[in-house]
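Subject: Sanity check before I submit

Could someone independently write out the structure tokens for this chain? I want to compare against mine line by line before I put it in a report. The sequence has 317 residues.
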Amino acid sequence: MLKERARLQAEAEAWEAKEKELEEISILQDIVKETSDPQDAAELAARVDGLDKLLGRYEIERMLGGETDKENAIVYINAGAGGTEAQDWAEMLFRMYLMWSEKKGFDTQVVDILPGEEAGIKNVTFIVSGPYAYGYLKCESGIHRLVRVSPFDANNRRHTSFASVYAYPELPENVQVDIKEEDLRIDTFRSSGPGGQHVNRTESAIRITHIPSGIVVQCQNERSQHKNKAIAMAILKSRLHELEKRKQEEKMATLNKEKKEIAWGSQIRSYILHPYKLVKDHRTKVEEHNAESVLNGELDPFMNACLLYLTFEQKSD
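---
Independent answer below. Compare away.
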């Protein structure tokens, strides 16, 4: 309740700040009309532009009204078939989301990462903590395709690589998910990544298998086995909750044949680096020719368009 109170208080204070800014802009506008002072006019234009951007962000947050949109996000990236090429692409996506999170002022925590044999990563699980982190990142779930001249091909041939991204919400502590002890298999092992002698010499890493669903989660980020188990259980709880939610949605979809499903498993975006540069979202048709900026975390145009797309889909249902 304290967390919810703090969130609502922050929203109220932000809205009051917008109202105050609008009032001051109106006063400044009257002054400019009377004096025609160029300096005041420039300040007026700058403040109107700033308020317009604030209201734009507010409009986006209004679309983040889902039950779990305001929660932190648990993100899983998995390299597709293709060995080193696909694993390098998975690491590029991981870097892209870390840079986007940093631009948003969000915190990130790597829970588990499996490096590739030569380069890149086979998969990674990380948590993005911040207001509406899941609401934004749910738009990234799906298959991401890369087309480029491979740096790992001595003949400089063009390659196509795939990686999957899946985001699901980190559930608040008051959400109950029934998990039976007899349905779990818990294994301990030594961490394989960097982290110092203590991490690598003790069996502090945890792998939890939920036998009925086949879901496997693991955490090797913390030195403490107890902390790793707590994080892994929290992720398992979130994944089981999301699985049950998806089953309910699929059940509703069979009852309503005209309902359009969001095909999370489909190819949602292409990143073309050769023979030309273009990033294209296949759901919203948004395009960006500055592919480097996108790979450096400039994802808001794609996410905002996706939120508009999802809002329209929900209204049409």
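---
OP: Matches mine. For the report I'm noting this point. The longest strand covers residues 158-169.
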